[in-house]
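Work Package 3 (structural annotation) set out to generate three-dimensional models for the target panel prioritized at the project kickoff. During this period the team completed the workflow that converts sequence records into discrete structure tokens, so that structures can be stored uniformly alongside our sequence database. As a representative example, we reproduce one entry of 325 residues exactly as it appears in the project archive.
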Amino acid sequence: MISATHVAPHVALYDLHPPLDDFRSEVLHGLMQPQKFFSPKFLYDKRGAELFDAICTLDEYYLTRTEMAILRTHASEIAELIGDGALIEFGSGSSQKIRILLDAMPQLPTYVALDISKQHLQESCLDLVAAYPGLETIAICTDYTQPIALPKIPHLQAKHKVGFFPGSSIGNLEPNEAVKFLRNAATLLQPKGSLLIGVDLKKSKEILEPAYNDAKGISADFALNILVRMNRELNADFNLNQFRYDAFYNPIGRIEMYIVSLADQVVHLDGTEISFKKDETLRTEYSYKYSTEEFQDLARSAGFVSQHVWTDAAQLFSVHYLSLV
């Protein structure tokens, strides 16, 4: 049984972070494939989380401000749907969006934050309880894309559980992986839980591409930071001057993000040689875009039914409230 560390009054931290060997083995597996790749979850060390927070403030990055505007507009309606249950956020990050909901739900007794970046998670939860005294906050450092068993916490057992998955992070998953995630979430939220989830809508590449490859280069810094992390944690020797970042819209309905090798080169990682050809790509992320109907079909295949969907006037972004069948 995993025990909690009480980092402050009303903040319990459960450390279920995957061990370093998992990071090493997953990265090496991806680097050995014909199309090199790694999971975007590895982008979020402390520095990566900070860079992503900076991306969310960019003019080009419409997603965060649009989703937050939708949440603010419909906060009271959402609060009524959630009631006095336990709110469980997948990928809590800097906890900006959850504050909109908490402001509308002073009665909420319990908030559970799931995130893979332990330091960022702990800091954001401490900030949160300072702003909302008395809110029982449970921080769980874990890979939330995998099946999760919540700790046996008494005030979670009998409560209506509502998942919160903002930011269109569901788009980082291949559609079959998204269904798997939603099924895992359904298991976590049983028996009669619900899920509030942000989903980016389909739109022109003229809007999409700058959002993922901004003029200031912060998106590039965010992607290339994984090379810094591998050098630091996995004894690798990536030369950042020999790689660049690229992102573009694929008409099948997704943004594709890559690190591109600028030369023929060999990189070492924990004694393993990895060869790159000039212009060879290392995929960091996909970001799938959905129509409302496409996403509702996806959710239905995982056991959810749509109760409400809210969008902005420009139809850039959507927020869905799903319930288990």
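Residues 99 and 211 are 24 Å apart (CA to CA).
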